[in-house]
Amino acid sequence: MTTARAVPIVFVHGTRFSAGQWSVQLTALRDEFPVVAVDLPGHGALSARPWSLSGATEVIARAVDSLDCGPALVVGHSLGGYASLEFARCHPERLRGLVLAGASASTRGAWAAPYRWVAGLVPRVPADRLARWNDRLLRRLYPPEVVEATIRSGYAFHTVPAAWGEVLGRFDAGAMGSVKAPVLILNGEKDTVFRSGEADFARAHPRARVELVPRAGHLANFDAPDAFTDAVRRFARQLSAVG
Ligand SMILES: O=C(O)CC1=CCC(=O)O1
């Protein structure tokens, strides 16, 4: 049962996914914490809404308010992690803690070039074909209980150019300076691209620490759902304890 002191938690999905990305975490944590997962603009139930980073921060802010338990722990993965950094800058009063998962690479870095190329390519491939590829890949790599909610929710390929177009070139470790709350940088051990700025991101914040999910890659909450959830739970309990 959730208690009055339990920190509320808002989960923010990564590229092309939606709230369904967090089905395992929501089920595992909902007895102890007030929890919700958002659909960012252009994704999931908000598929028809145009993407913008400012719109994304408003969606997160409304989710925090909807839980009605004060400032929240926000858990953002990849695109959702960068959106959460922007949320932290715009709405510090609503943030109790931040889990930055797979989002500790500078998007000004050299690795952004291939992502720009992919963003230009995506609209040229029929969305149903991309969806079939993604369904097949997720089903091959993960058990149904981990990915069925994601597959059922579909993918927001149409939003990739706008979302990456706004995020690429915009974030680096300096963004950590706008985060007033404690930060857990939670990365898959094997996520080499999105760990590339990990040390710089951690150094740029006085209350940031890094935790690695062993043997996991970029989609760490699919690769090792229990380890990912345990790390979030430990951090949430620490935040709940300090009140
Ligand atoms: O969301 C992802 O998985 C990858 C990504 C690239 C640029 C960005 O914002 O997210």
From TrEMBL:
Q: Where is the AB hydrolase-1 domain?
A: 9-231
Which keywords does UniProt give here? Hydrolase
Q: Name one GO molecular function term.
A: 3-oxoadipate enol-lactonase activity
So which domain of life are we looking at? Bacteria
Give the Enzyme Commission number. Answer: 3.1.1.24
Q: What class of enzyme is it?
A: hydrolase
Question: Pfam families given for it?
Answer: Abhydrolase_6
Q: Which SUPFAM superfamilies match?
A: alpha/beta-Hydrolases (SSF53474)
The protein in question is named 3-oxoadipate enol-lactonase 2
Q: What species was this sequence derived from?
A: Streptomyces rubrolavendulae
